[in-house]
Design goal:
It is built from 4 helices and 13 strands. It is mostly beta strands. It has a single domain, classed as Acyl-CoA thioesterase, double hotdog domain (Porin, Beta Barrel), CATH 2.40.160.210. Strand 11 (about 245-255) and strand 12 form a beta hairpin. Helix 2 packs antiparallel against helix 4.
């Protein structure tokens, strides 16, 4: 387990080529392309390396092309502005001479001010809940090879849903769900690393919430899913090696696109971060 996490930290550790130019490794997690959360986390690491004494509070990103996990990714950071309290960065990810991703991120000095938050949902605690993988282990041999390749990968995070997920026979339900997650081993006391890993893991279990009202499984034949964009707001500090609750919903799906939102809570009820994502949900006739 520690090796899985050490490998992820290595992926998040970028090589600095020049002052504002970085290179990161890619990893195969079983999907046909580079996992979007990896690019999010690496881009945020690159941007943070150009900022002094300020923490990221928001990011807005677009996925432009599929990334190739057999090749490194170059990140170019534009120091758009450094103000009295805020810094803004624009980041472009380049692979094989083409942009595959771009992102804007805003950083702020620590300040005190008004403070309120949405209440944490009342759901079962993670202790004793089955790990996500236990739900599909018994049906693994009935799944297509491409699906088995994704689900069979060991992850540096563990996930424990509070509701029973549907894999082969999804049923129509309200587009809302909750899942606990945490890193599989202890992490260093580095807030930048924790925020970048939170961006990484926020790309799991979000977009497929938009499938729930339609009774369509993420593994359905003819379904094409791909992230179009990803936005994230960091409200309060937290550790990703402690249990966090991801509460997601989907207000809308239309035009072959699905929209999903998420709130991430610490176990003590603090709202840590919020996310939103729109993605391609295209049904291709068989």
């Amino acid at each position: 387990m520690q090796q899985l996490l050490d490998d992820l930290i290595k992926v998040m550790t970028l090589e600095r080529l020049e002052s504002d130019l970085f290179r990161g490794e890619s990893r195969d997690i079983g999907s046909p392309q580079v996992f979007g959360g990896q690019v999010l986390g690496q881009a945020l690491m690159a941007a943070t390396a150009t900022v002094v004494d300020r923490r990221v509070h928001s990011l807005h990103a677009y996925f432009l092309r599929r990334g190739d996990f057999n090749s490194p990714i170059v990140y170019e950071v534009d120091r758009a502005r450094d103000g009295n309290h805020f810094s803004t960065r624009r980041i472009v990810a380049i692979q094989h001479g083409a942009q595959i991703f771009n992102m804007s991120a805003s950083f702020q000095t620590d300040e005190q001010g008004l403070d309120h938050q949405l209440a944490m949902p009342d759901v079962p605690p993670p202790d004793g809940l089955p790990e996500l993988g236990s739900y599909y282990n018994d049906i693994m041999d009935r799944l297509p090879t491409s699906v088995r390749r994704i689900l069979g990968q060991k992850r540096p995070f563990e996930f424990r849903p509070t509701e029973t997920p549907g894999f082969l026979r999804a049923e129509k339900s309200a587009p809302s769900r909750h899942i606990w997650f945490r890193a599989v081993a202890a992490l260093p006391d580095d807030e930048t690393l924790h925020r970048c890993l939170l961006a990484y893991v926020s790309d799991f279990n979000l977009l497929d919430t938009a499938l729930m009202p339609h009774g369509v499984s993420a593994m359905a034949k003819g379904l094409v899913m791909a992230s179009i964009d990803h936005a994230m707001w960091f409200h309060r500090a937290a550790r990703v090696d402690e249990w966090l609750l991801y509460s997601t919903d989907s207000p809308s799906a239309s035009g072959a696109r699905g929209f999903a939102r998420g709130n991430i809570f610490a176990r003590d009820g603090r709202l840590i971060a919020s996310t939103s994502q729109e993605g391609l949900l295209r049904m291709v006739p068989s």
